[in-house]
Amino acid sequence: xxxxxxxxxxxxxxxxxxxxxxxxxxxxxxxxxxxxxxxxxxxxxxxxxxxxxxxxxxxxxxxxxxxxxxxxxxxxxxxxxxxxxxxxxxxxxxxxxxxxxxxxxxxxxxxxxxxxxxxxxxxxxxxxxxxxxxxxxxxxxxxxxxxxxxxxxxxxxxxxxxxxxxxxxxxxxxxxxxxxxxxxxxxxxxxxxxxxxxxxxxxxxxxxxxxxxxxxxxxxxxxxxxxxxxxxxxxxxxxxxxxxxxxx
Amino acid sequence: xxxxxxxxxxxxxxxxxxxxxxxxxxxxxxxxxxxxxxxxxxxxxxxxxxxxxxxxxxxxxxxxxxxxxxxxxxxxxxxxxxxxxxxxxxxxxxxxxxxxxxxxxxxxxxxxxxxxxxxxxxxxxxxxxxxxxxxxxxxxxxxxxxxxxxxxxxxxxxxxxxxxxxxxxxxxxxxxxxxxxxxxxxxxxxxxxxxxxxxxxxxxxxxxxxxxxxxxxxxxxxxxxxxxxxxxxxxxxxxxxxxxxxxxxxxxxxxxxxxxxx
Lengths: 248, 262
Description:
The complex is a heterodimer.
Chain A: E1 4-15, E2 18-29, E3 33-38, H1 44-51, E4 59-64, E5 67-68, H2 74-81, E6 84-87, H3 99-110, H4 116-129, H5 145-157, E7 163-167, H6 175-192, E8 195-199, H7 203-209, E9 212-217, E10 220-225, H8 227-231, H9 236-243
Parallel strand pairs in A: 3-8, 3-9, 6-7, 7-8
Antiparallel strand pairs in A: 1-2, 1-4, 4-5, 9-10
Helix pairs in contact in A: 3-4, 3-5, 4-5
Chain B: H1 3-32, H2 39-50, H3 54-77, H4 85-123, H5 126-132, H6 137-175, H7 180-187, H8 193-219, H9 224-257
Helix pairs in contact in B: 1-6, 2-6, 3-4, 3-6, 4-6, 4-7, 4-8, 4-9, 6-8, 8-9
């Protein structure tokens, strides 16, 4: 097993004339939590999408467990994605399925040996972890934004993936629930060795979750280190970010 | 920019769009034969797109049958050929009116539904979420709907033809005393294999067109809810237009393969 769960090698991505990622290179060690910070529109979500292969770089390479994601075909991507969970910024729950069936969906697709009752039990367990077990039979449209976010996290965790990509986990959540979600992510890393890549604007959340933080600006990683290191940075942008208490 | 430039750009855009649509259609055919086969989702789509269209098709078929019967009677009465009404109506229904009406009705119901559903899934990142859960969204969303439409259209067309013939009988029975057995014997007296089967099976092509055009527009939706509305409307309009044009080619092909139907 390679030590680096994820490796970006000079990745560049542009949309029209706008270069969102500009030769970005970094590594994320296995079983660590990496928090990606940055202003809106600086390419944080684009970075996550490159990891899971929803986007391909214009140049450069993206590796997950030493396998080049950016070169995989659809079958290869499908195989590698079974080891990843992805929480979308807007949860992206399937609105034709109940909350419970959303969480059960990856299990039904990829753990076909499980009986229907085992799938339901596993889905209920995941929902209980995010405090939504009573909402199993509700439709996504009946949930608040924060509840949808938690349901999306439960779906991302459904297969207990070794790599979890999380886009704004605390957006739209009250501080207490946000703290519980942060703790859940910390527990996942501690107890199951899950590698976390978290995009967030929420500095307290990043401090709580992240072993390492990185700040993206103008398509480049301008600072990287522990929360304490970034807090002492001489760069005014980094200092401004680390002093903010925004909940994004 | 001159008018010629504008026209040229439009033509180039239309050609590019047609090329993309053709590749999309070719991919859907190729993917049908590649595992994994989404049997469960295809059956669900068969229910959603096929079974749930049955009430619409039945009611429309009855109404078309009644109207066609009235027109057939008005025409044949002039020649004293009222006895030919059931056969004339049935031939008109099974050879063209039934398949084309069913195709256009279903391009409205199914095309709008697929365009809006896939468009909404696209703009709310649900299609990306499918991919992120290691599901091939093209196979799961497009191929299943295409297969369901190809299977459902001939069945629904047969239902429409049946409802139309019953509607024709009801219209006749309201005007003159006629026994059901005599009516239906006369209705099928002139209909043979070449009249019924090719015309019904051509609606499988209609199903393919409806599913592919509306899926393509849904999967390429952008610009939020406005884009979803546009995808839904364009799905109906474009699938209907393509269906009508392709129907001309199919009718010509049927005449070539089955000269006795001409």
